[in-house]
Amino acid sequence: MPRTPVDLTRDSAPKAVLVGIHDRKGIVSSRDYVFSWKESMRELARLAETLDYEVVAQVTQEKEAPDPQTYLGTGKARELVQVVADEGATCVIVDGRLSPTQLRNLEDITGVTVMDRTDLILRIFAARARTAEGKLQVEMAAAQHALARLAGTGVHMSNPGAGIGTRGPGETKIEMDRRVLRNRIASLNRELKKVARQRAEQTKKRRESGIPIVSLVGYTNAGKSTLFNTLTGDEAYADDKLFATLDPWTRRWRLPSGQVVLLVDTVGFIQGLPHELVAAFRATLEESVDSDLHIHVVDVSNPAWPQQMATVNGVLSDLGVEGRPRVVCFNKKDRVSPQELDSVLRVHRGSVAISALFEDGLDELALAVAEGLSEKRVTVSWHIPYSKWDLVFEIKRVGNVRSEIHDDEGALINVDLLPEDAERFSRKLEIRKT
Ligand SMILES: Nc1nc2c(ncn2[C@@H]2O[C@H](COP(=O)(O)OP(=O)(O)OP(=O)(O)O)[C@@H](O)[C@H]2O)c(=O)[nH]1
Ligand SMILES: [Mg+2]
After folding, report:
1. How many C-beta atoms lie closer than 10 Å to residue 58's C-beta?
2. Residues 6+ away with beta carbon under 8 Å from 141
3. Do 347 and 219 fall within a single domain?
4. Considering the domain boundaries, does residue 92 fall inside one?
5. How many CB atoms sit inside 10 A of residue 419's CB?
6. Is 380:417 a contact under the CB 8 Å cutoff?
7. Phi, psi angle pair for 308, to nearest 5°
8. What is the span of the domain harbouring residue 333?
9. Which residues 6+ apart lie within 8 Å of 1 measured at CB?
10. Residue 61 Cβ < 6 Å to ligand 1
């Protein structure tokens, strides 16, 4: 059957059929962590709706591993073709990773556009990117994803038994594609470095102002942007769609006590973010969570909130900032019963329950933030020689550097630290002096 590509940008309400496989225990084996397939498919549907797809059907199969040719087994693939035709679907979205062979074969037999989870997330990121840096990062992630797919092709091509995916003279074309992509990645890298330098300059200025920085972190759709808007009275893009925020936003927030902080809205986290995307967004993420306090926003009305909370904690720990003062904020309390809320708060002591939408519990949140920020910090001044510069990186991770004046031998650093950190570093500096 000839392939008929569909221009999704022109179709206002494209109809999508979702495809997924799972093992006998109901676990998604194609993803690199344990996840129930029902939860995974629900999330895929929400991701699709984020791009205004109408999910018209699901085709799932119990299968230990994807079929190398068509992802689904032959019989199921035939069923998929039928479902696509019956529903008048315009695309198929697979909850996993597709090799170039699987992608091409599925497009050939269904006659519609086929994409995998990464393709879908990339499209969402592309649609949401606002700043120049965000756009560059999306392009970078897309180029890396394309390169990863081509790498898969190479493996198949060197194997003569690979079947219908093998095309003789294709190899040179693939090599050319690879070279083009590598060049593009290198040039994107250079551009990104330039933007990152500008951003670092802005961050430095912000830090030097001495105003505490508070970042809103949390799983996508938790309500961070809604809370951000409510607290700062400013319009950041909030939407009942996943990934409504791609680039961090910073605004002033005046606490009822009068203290002013800088509030940073960040992009939502999600389970199993493809690693190309994690790499591409790491710089922005690192920057936006490198703050004095985290408000961890949790959508308590989502039954999967404990897993979502664990995912967010995992990312924060990967970024080396899990030890920052933190206020856990259970949002959307208007959607759960008081009893349910009570039992959650009893387990998570010190957390607050709010409704960002109905502006409920915000004073309590502000109080918890003020308390978290005043957690006793001491300001120290150290002259650190360049020979011990590795310590400065460690200090910057946990402390708030107020100034850094360089001379020939090192730099005089003025920094706010927790007393135990101040003691630890002064010990390290002295030990190394001998
Ligand atoms: N019922 C209810 N809905 C809320 C509340 N807070 C936010 N929402 C809704 O939840 C949806 C997601 O809110 P956002 O603020 O965009 O979520 P986010 O955490 O910024 O999402 P990302 O930017 O994708 O990470 C929107 O439809 C909000 O109106 C709340 O307190 N109660
Ligand atoms: Mg948001």
Report:
1. 16
2. 122, 125, 274, 276, 277, 279, 280, 281
3. yes
4. yes
5. 12
6. yes
7. -65, -40
8. 211-374
9. 108, 109, 111
10. no
In a domain? residue 363: yes
Query: What mean pLDDT is predicted for residues 215-236?
Result: 87
347: DSSP letter: H
Which residue of 226, 234, 311, 359 sits with most ligand 1 atoms within 8 Å of its CB, as the best mutation to test the pocket?
Answer: 226
- Which two structure tokens, joined as six digits, stand for 333? 């309390």
Please tell me if the CB atom of residue 245 comes closer than 6 angstroms to any atom of ligand 1.
yes
Name the CA radius of gyration of the chain, rounded: 25
Ligand 2 centre to CA of 242 (Å) is 8
Predicted confidence at residue 242, as pLDDT, reads 61
Contact 382, 424 (CB under 8 A): no
Pick the residue with more confidence: 131 or 42?
A: 42
Asked if the model's pLDDT at residue 362 lies above 50, the reply is yes
The pLDDT value given to residue 209: 66
Give the Cα separation of 263 and 252 in Å (integer). Answer: 6
Q: Are residues 310 and 232 in the same domain?
A: yes
As separate numbers, helices (DSSP H) first and strands (DSSP E) second, the chain gives 13, 13
Amino acid at 13: A
Q: Is residue 206 part of a domain?
A: no
What do you get for the CA distance between the two ends of the chain, in Å? 77
Output the six-digit token pair for 122: 């990339």
DSSP per position, 172-232: HHHHHHHHHHHHHHHHHHHHHHHHHHHHHHHHHHHHHTT--EEEEEEBTTSSHHHHHHHHH
pLDDT of residue 20: 93
C-alpha 40/C-alpha 20 separation (Å) is: 9
Task: Report the length, in residues, of the chain.
Answer: 434
Residue among 235, 265, 357 whose CB has most ligand 1 atoms within 8 A, to mutate? 357
Residue 285 burial by Cβ neighbours in a 10 Å radius (0-12, 13-18, 19+): buried
Q: Mind giving me the DSSP string for 86-113?
A: HHT-SEEEESS---HHHHHHHHHHH-SE
Helices 275-289 & 132-157, crossing angle to 10 degrees? 150
Could you report the per-residue pLDDT of 389-410, keeping only the tens digit for each?
888 888 877 677 778 899 999 9
How many other C-beta atoms can be found within 10 angstroms of the C-beta atom of residue 337? 9
Specify the number of domains making up the chain. Answer: 4
DSSP 322: T
